[in-house]
Design goal:
By secondary structure, the chain is mainly alpha-helical. It has a single domain, classed as Orthogonal Bundle (Rna Polymerase Sigma Factor, Chain: A), CATH 1.10.1740. Helices cover about 85% and strands about 0% of the residues. It is built from four helices and no strands. α1 packs across α2 (about 15-35) and α1 (about 5-15) runs parallel beside α3. It is elongated, with a radius of gyration of 24 Å. The termini are far apart.
């Protein structure tokens, strides 16, 4: 009933059709799991769109944190910070001897 609205909203946030389709499915799963907590102080559509927003932002957040972890891993594994300081110290010593 609200799947088109959920898809459009999730697509506007995620900017990816496949991820937006996944979001529609996940939102209805989350709705089914927490239907009893719906207090009816807003429309069902509003509540589903709030679930959609939260799901999409969590997806983006987890994607960004995964990239951070990958960047930190790559930096620590393939790049030696001591090498930079060694060059800097070496350059400074060369400047002193002149």
């Amino acid at each position: 009933m609200f799947s088109k609205d959920i898809f459009r909203y999730s697509f506007s946030i995620l900017k990816n059709e496949e991820k937006a389709k996944d979001a529609v499915q996940e939102v209805f799963v989350k709705y089914a799991e927490s239907e009893s907590s719906f207090k009816r102080n807003c429309s069902l559509k509003t509540w589903l769109l709030v679930i959609t927003r939260n799901y999409c932002y969590n997806k983006i957040k987890s994607k960004n944190s995964n990239n951070d972890r990958l960047d930190n891993y790559t930096t620590s594994k393939f790049y030696e910070n001591d090498y930079d300081s060694e060059i800097t110290i070496k350059d400074a010593l060369m400047q002193l001897s002149i």
